[in-house]
Each structure stands twice: as structure tokens, then as C-alpha cells.
Amino acid sequence: MIVTVTPNPALDLTYTVDALVPHGTHRVSAVAEEPGGKGLNVARVLHALGEPVLATGLLGGSTGDRVSELLADAAVPAAFLPIAAETRRTVSVADDADATGFWEPGPMVTGREWAAFVAQFEELLGDAEVVALCGSLPPGAPIDGYATLVRVAAKRGVPSVLDTSGEALRHGLAAGPDLVKPNVDELAALRTRGSELDAASLLDCGAKAVVVSRGPEGLLALTGDGAWRGVPSERLTGNPTGAGDACVAALARGLRDHTPWPELLADAVALSAAAVATPTAGAVDLATYRRLRPAVRVSAAREGSPC
Q1: How confident is the model at residue 205 (pLDDT cuts 50, 70, 90)?
Q2: Hey, which bits of 84-159 come out as E strands?
Q3: pTM (2 decimals)?
Q4: How far apart are CA 200 and CA 306, in angstroms?
Q5: Residue 307: inside a domain, yes or no?
Q6: pLDDT given at position 193
Q7: What pLDDT sits at residue 39?
Q8: Domain with 112 in it: what CATH number?
Q9: Is 245 a catalytic residue?
């Protein structure tokens, strides 16, 4: 079973418009309401693929109740810790070219609530084969919260995939996650002594493997054994909001199955592209995935090469 952790989930609203015009008035052609947050998107993709998965994290208030209802309606197994503050909402406005997001701040989490979640997380590891730790940390959570979860998982012999950014990523790296997945912007935002880090530097910081998502240009993977680039055979237009989460789903599944890296990278590229072909995050177009998977181009890359 793969356990996905979303410390700062959301009720995710997607508005579809013909074209997004700043400062303009728009007629919305479709509205989608989904359980949101990176880890929940990962869980929903894995569930769509028929993989055993359990979603966990922190939920509060009536918005949190609605997220729980939507997960139950989708038959996604979940075990969230209740908190006092209200879960946030996120809004994505998608047109034919791209999507624009509006994220509310997360709920304030108390020290007691965070400690209770860490204890619950350790209990859930009993049946876990991989954990995916995803998204931002809510206000009040310790900045090294992901490092704590990585170490708890490692103590129980469970590999971890870390997909976060900023200081949460920097602190998480120090705990030695098995795989980290920044995108190019998140990688560029990490600095040490005033200099940007490249992908290879994350291995020096503690990660055992690094996969950098590069948008339409595909993925770059670096490990202690080699480096590879995976490029989709065609460029899709649509909503890229959930592409990175679909990538994490593929990586977590491959880590569980000990899939060789070139094959794993090809699978992650195809599943990411299949997410772009859907209007909402947390979904993939399985027909597109099956069509693209054999045509993904994977080649060796120079180790330490920039993104």
C-alpha cells in the first residue's frame, strides 16, 4: 500500500473558461469541486490506476468535512486527523492554454495537533510500502515537519518520496528522503550561500534520488547510479495543474515495485502528460497514458547536468 500525506489539503475548485483575460469578466462553462492538495491528487491518481492507497493528513471545519465527503464519494481510502481550524480552499481558472491558481492560506495547526498527527502517521506505516509526502506545510507546523516524517518512515523501513518546496524542502532533504521531486522553479528557488542549487546538489544535501519536472520538456532523473532525461513524444495542451502530482504517483509506484530508472522515468512522463489532458488535478486520461507510454523517449544524461 502507498500512503500519501497532505498536511495542508484543500477543497479544490476549478472554473473552466474559454480564455482567461486579466481584469475581465468571464462566463464559466464548467465548475468542478474536488478534494485538493498535492497528496490527495496523488492518492486519487493511484486509486484510478487500481493501486492500493491510503490518504492522510490534517482536516478541519466544514470545508474539511466536505473534502472527506468527496473522498468517500470517490471511494479513496482516507484516515485524516481532525483539527480545530478550517481547511483552506483553492481555485484554479483553466482555459485551453493553461491554468491560473488562487490559493487560500492554510489553517493554523497547534503543536499538540501536529504531535498527534506524527503519532498517527507512525501507526499508519504498518501496512505501508512507500509514503509520498506532498505539498506545503500549514501554518503552525514545524518547518522541519517533513524531515520528522521522513525519519519516522525510515525507522520503519518505508521509503519516502518528498514533493514540497522552499524551507520545507531544504529541511526535508537533511533527513535523507529516498526521492525528491522539485520542479524547475522550486529548484531555482533553493539557494545556499547566495548560489542556486542544481539537481545534483540535492543528492549532496541528502536525497538518494532526484526527479526534476520540466513542464513540456519532460523529466530529469539523477541517482547515485546515473542520470536520465525523459521527454514526451508530443506536446499536449490543457490543464497542467495536476501533472506533477501524477508524476509523484508514478514515482511512488515505481519505487514500491523497484522499477528500473529508465522504465520508471518513461512511466512518470506518460502519466504526467495524461494528467494535462484532463480538466482537473487528481485525474488522468488513461487512454492518453496508454497511447503515450510506449513513445516516451528516455536517454542518458550527463550526471550533474543542469535542468
Answers
A1: confident
A2: 88-94, 99-103, 130-134
A3: 0.89
A4: 8
A5: no
A6: 46
A7: 96
A8: 3.40.1190.20
A9: yes
